[in-house]
Amino acid sequence: MRYKLLSLLLIILVYASIFPPYVLAQQEERKPVPGVSVEKGGALLPTGRFVLEPAFQYAHNSSKQLVSISGFSIFNAILIGRIDLKEIERDIYIPSITARLGFKDMELNVKVPWMYRKDKETNPATEPPTVYSADDSGLGDIEGGFYYKLVNEHGAVPDIILSLGVKSDTGRDPYGLQTETVGGQLRYKEFPTGTGHWGYSGGLIFVKTTDPAIVFLNLTYFYNDSRDIGTENGTFYGKVDPGDSFEYNIGTVVALNEKFSINFTLNQRITGKTVQNGSEIADSDLNAISLNLGGTYAISKWFSIDVTAGIGLTSDANDVTLMIRVPINFEF
Q1: Local structure of 39: helix, strand or coil
Q2: 282, 68 in Cβ contact below 8 A?
Q3: More confident residue, 111 or 178
Q4: Closest CA to 203 of 166, 163, 176, 231
Q5: CA distances from 201 to 143, 167, 223, 241, 265 (A)
Q6: What gap in Å lies between CA 154 and CA 157, rounded to an integer?
Q7: Is the pLDDT confidence value at 23 over 60?
Q8: Where would I find the beta strands (DSSP E) of 168-312?
């Protein structure tokens, strides 16, 4: 199925490179909401606009079950093997810097993240309960991509924007991580800061204006490349093919005045099972659903702040997330 979807995305990209965005005569561009990103219903940057965006993301996740670690999301423990985890409190901090550049009907972006993770593990089965804490940090997976407007909003037809992206493997991968034995059990000495695989994404964003609100639907497919790991740190991994993901975001942005807007978003990401040496790894599929509420305030034409908080609605989602973005605009 993944190859059919990739073929469809390639056809869309070829169409976008040949044909200009469809616009009715005398159709006006929708007025952008200051500081709102494209993936949340914001408009593309105008030609010659450059944005430097420092951001900070926080996520808290807890688990009270035995876990066979085999996932590939950086918000989960990542390892193929058998390390028993009892009760975990996990905090992840991701500062990042993103550069965006606007062209006619197109926007380019590059993001460089840094990741700090702290785990606190408690085994209530022992007397007294055993507590083990560890933390680690490092460069994450650098990613980039672009947006291209296929259709301008007219009548009942929304803006339609093509999104394509690529994620590198610059972060520390989850294979061959150093461990230590504490209290007779194996524990991590370091954590992954990336997936260990290149990834590619493609999708469509639909945006419709209904003054004073904007409603949007963001559909994205994520393809994770397979990799022959071989043996790392004494553990044989062989060929690993992480599960691909499908994600949608549906929400609305309401402009309360020229400077301040609020947004509501429902997000779901479904990830298929990881395949190792031709066999699916049990319980490696994920279904993460979250509800997000945010606000954006334009301090000036060149400077704004965007804050979004989210809560997880399924066990695979993070319990709580917080994102703070500070887009700084430059004109060329």
Answers
A1: helix
A2: yes
A3: 111
A4: 163
A5: 11, 8, 6, 16, 20
A6: 5
A7: no
A8: 179-182, 185-188, 199-210, 213-224, 227-232, 235-241, 245-255, 260-271, 275-276, 279-280, 286-298, 304-312
Residue at 12: amino acid letter: I
pTM higher than 0.70 for the full model?
yes
143-170, pLDDT tens digit by residue?
999 999 999 988 889 999 999 999 999 9
Tell me the CA distances in angstroms from 66 to 14, 79, 83, one per residue in order: 47, 14, 9
Q: Which residue has the tokens 């703070």?
A: 324
Domains of the chain with bracketed CATH: 2-24+47-331 (2.40.160.40)
Cβ-contact 269, 253 below 8 angstroms = no
DSSP summary character for residue 298: E
Per-residue confidence (pLDDT) for residue 226, from 0 to 100: 92
3-state secondary structure of 53: strand
pLDDT at 295 over 90: yes
The mean pLDDT value for 116-126 works out to 80
Q: Are 68 and 283 in contact (CB under 8 A)?
A: yes
Summarize pLDDT for 182-203 with one digit per residue, the tens. 767 777 788 888 888 999 999 9
Q: Please give the torsion angle defined by the CA atoms of residues 175, 177, 181 and 183, in that order, rounded to the nearest 10 degrees.
A: -90
- What Rg value do the Cα atoms of the chain yield, rounded? 21
Please check whether residue 130 is in contact with residue 122, taking contact to mean a CB–CB distance below 8 angstroms.
yes
- Tell me the backbone φ, ψ of residue 262, rounded to 5 degrees: -120, 155
Task: Judge whether 75 and 318 are in contact, CB under 8 Å.
Answer: yes
